[in-house]
Amino acid sequence: MSQSTAIRRPATPPLRLGTLANDATVRSVFYQAVTFVCVVGLIWYLVSNTIANMATRGMSAGFDFLDVSAGFNIAFTLIPYREGDSYLRVFQVGIANTLLVAAIGVVFASILGLVVGLGRLSTNWLIRTLARWYVEILRNTPLLLQIIAWYFGVFNLLPLPRASVDLGGVMYLNNRGAYFPAPVPGEGFGLVLLALVAALIGAVLLHLWARQRFRATGRPFPSVLVGIALVLVAPTLVYLLLGAPLTWDWPVLRGFNFQGGFSVPPAFCALVVALSIYTSCFIAEIVRAGIQSVGHGQTEAARALGVKPSRTMRFIILPQAMRVIIPPLISQYLNLTKNSSLAIAIGFPDLVSVWMNTSLNQSGRAIPIVAMTMGFYCVVSLAVSFVLNSYNRRILLRER
Amino acid sequence: MSDAPLVFAPRPADPPPPSTIGVVGWMRANLFSSVPNAILTFLGIYIFYVVVSAIVNWALVNAVWEAENRRQCLDMVGRSGACWPGVAAWIPNLIYGLYPKDQVWRINTGFLILIAWAVPLWLPRVRSKVAIGLSLVLAYPFLASYFFHGGQQTLVWTALIALGATAFAWTWLTSLAEMRFGLGFGPLVARLFGAADDERARRIGWGALAALYVLTFVIVSQLDFVEVQTRFWGGLFLTLVISGIGIAFSLPAGVVLALGRRSEMPLIRVFCVTFIELFRSVPLITILFMFNTMLPLFLPEGVEVNRLLRAIVAVCLFASAYMAEIVRGGLQAIPKGQYEAAAAMGLGFWQSTSLIILPQALRIMIPSIVGNFIGLFKDTTLVSIIGLFDLLSMSRAVGEDTRWLGLFIEPFFFITLIYFVFCFLMSQYSLNLERRLGEGQRR
């Protein structure tokens, strides 16, 4: 008698409602079906209401208004815009302004955040305490309040153009805004830019080569220093060889206001300053947590192996701290971009203010406008999370 | 010669050098340990002096404390000192908004009830803390909305308000009973009636609760509060209402969404992920705008939704999406062994989640949850952009008052202090809670 006969398949239990209700698959399908019906029902209800309401109010949901002339002026535009340009152009102007604020804010917030974060780790008690209270006070008050306070309390109270605050003869601050000299590229300036791009590519390639050789042979090469020198020297050489083809358009006080140069309104200054300072608190905490997350044993181990202190920082502490710092840092950058939408409170024409407020009120096309605004922010944040996820995958600790 | 044993008596140690102890030593170690450090210290002292002396001079030394209007302030000190009488005159409005003066006691009573309701949660001998907490979250809103809004009572409405009042009465009765006798309210009444067995005791307990309900129902139906429409709500009161509802709603909703996101059912996961990612990727102000302009379109014709409700819906959905990500982080931090052990004990999904996973996960999440609450509290300022009169809008209104025209900085300074105190206390309490709950984890 073979042993296999001893193993028999259990008889299929009789089909009863009780067994069905306890079957994992049946349950799962049932729950999902219920959820699906509820969600789709809710959406259908909302959509049908919206369609009915729009029909009674004579509203339209199409995108045909994008070609229509917007017919209002915008106080500050990064890209050229004239009154009478289309709504699509308004949308682009809004995006450009939002991205400009975000880019400048990110740079300042990072620098400030790094300084304050290192200050919180200082061995100096006074610096540590000052940095701590800087963070506590600014982190525990609303950003909108800070933006409005900077606007009404500082940038609106600046003197008239005639009595402008002169910052080293380069930049002027008054209650109309901040004025900088604007670069005017002359003949052949394109070549300088080309040299800059070439130098950048060269520096990156050099760095890659140096890293490969370091991994293969252990012989280091100061690729970062050489790269920086390359990026600085090459364009300067080309610039000088071509006879300095760049002039500056200086702002000059004429009559009641400055003429020429490049200027930004007070609202822009208030927004950038408030966003940078507010975000710098969070960045400072991230930097501090990142550096503290690297155990002291790492430093001691490096010392025991005879690694120089400067190299300990570069090859042991920083790579490990970066792993902790980078992901929350990037989400802070994203937060800063989203928070720039508070510009509406002080009348800076960012995307939300110029598109979701002015254009919506002018054209009455609520649905396409809301959808386009949210679409822009979704695209930005999806792009950022894609970058983050790929970074996280690259630096993931491979355990066991 | 001498027979006395030779005893080794060490020479007493030299005292530590005076430069390493006391104030001097501390300063040498912490402020002047090296030349760059000393420079930093002087720089720090300078910054501290500039900032603090500017604030103190403006807010205290040069400030005007008594004046009829802003003109007088400006005549006295110009812009070099603060003009506090303007803020003082507006304090009632900053706190209660445009709420009718003779009805303000209702707001005060409402918040006192909230505090009284929460007190038993901190009393050590009270055992039914979970029930009290749940009753607070579920039943207080009815009571509060009647106190704050008032108006006509329909039968259903009265029944719900009475439910709130009963829950409040039960909370205190049961807390007192537990502190004094170690028995809940129901069991105590049953004991007094001399219940023979558990079944009868339970019935008597529920009967006592029902009697309490009838009593409160009668009392509540006698109340007659004037209706105060939500457009009169404002100031700190409105800020607390919006953030309170947002906090109470976002935590349970966030838990549900996070569980949905980790669910094995693909459809539920997709819905939850879409909701969370959509609401997290756009700024709150766009959501507020969207609900402000589109909620009337979404609902059938004739259904009126007031501005406050639109803002509250937006804040709640936004906050729950953020909370969901925090809860997900907490759930992910629970080792897989806990899930497996719960399954091995024969616990189903709901049992293992509510008894094993969530209690551990919530403890890890406390700092982030409180951080989120603080963020929510600060974000309520955004409702001023869509035209609600929260604390920030009220403070801007001071400068538009003809008597105090242009008075902006002082009210901002004052409400900054209010926001700071609330947020800072919340964060310090969370640190404290984290330390106490982490006691058992420490090695």
What does this protein look like?
The complex is a heterodimer of chains A (about 400) and B (about 450). Chain A is an alpha+beta fold. Chain A has a domain at about 65-160 and about 265-400: MetI-like fold. Chain A has helices spanning about 15-20, 25-55, 85-120, 125-140, 145-155, 190-215, 225-240, 265-295, 295-305, 310-340, 350-365, 365-395; strands spanning about 165, 170-175, 175-180, 180-185, 245-250, 250-255, 255-260, 260-265. In chain A, the strands form three sheets. A four-stranded antiparallel sheet of chain A has the order 1-2-3-8. Chain A is globular, with a radius of gyration of 30 Å. With about 450 residues, chain B is mainly α. Chain B has 17 helices and no strands. The longest helix of chain B is centred in the last third of the chain and has 31 residues, at about 350-380. The radius of gyration of chain B is 29 Å and the shape is globular. Chain B starts with about 20 loop residues before the first helix and ends in a 6-residue tail after the last helix. The mean pLDDT of chain B is about 90. Classes of the chains: A alpha+beta (about 400), B mainly alpha (about 450). The interface between A and B is large, with 53 and 53 residues.
Give a summary of the structure in a few sentences.
The complex is a heterodimer of chains A (400) and B (443). Chain A has 400 residues and is α+β, with helices and mostly antiparallel strands. Helix content of chain A is 65%, strand content 7%.
**Which structural class best describes the helix and strand composition of chain B?**
mainly alpha
**Spatial separation of the terminal alpha carbons of chain B:** 59 Å
The main sheet of chain B comes to: none
Cα shape of chain A: globular
CATH topology of the domain at 67-162 and 265-400 in chain A: MetI-like fold
Blueprint (SSEs and pairs):
The complex is a heterodimer of chains A (400) and B (443).
Chain A: H1 17-22, H2 24-57, H3 87-120, H4 125-139, H5 143-155, E1 165-167, E2 171-174, E3 177-180, E4 182-185, H6 189-217, H7 223-241, E5 246-249, E6 252-254, E7 257-259, E8 262-264, H8 266-293, H9 296-304, H10 309-339, H11 351-363, H12 366-395
Antiparallel strand pairs in A: 1-2, 2-3, 3-8, 4-5, 6-7
Helix pairs in contact in A: 3-4, 3-8, 3-11, 4-8, 5-8, 6-7, 8-10, 9-10, 10-12, 11-12
Chain B: H1 22-30, H2 35-61, H3 70-77, H4 84-96, H5 104-118, H6 129-149, H7 155-181, H8 185-193, H9 198-222, H10 235-261, H11 266-281, H12 284-298, H13 307-333, H14 336-344, H15 349-379, H16 391-398, H17 409-437
Helix pairs in contact in B: 4-10, 4-16, 5-6, 6-7, 7-9, 8-9, 10-11, 10-13, 10-15, 10-16, 11-13, 12-13, 13-15, 14-15, 15-17
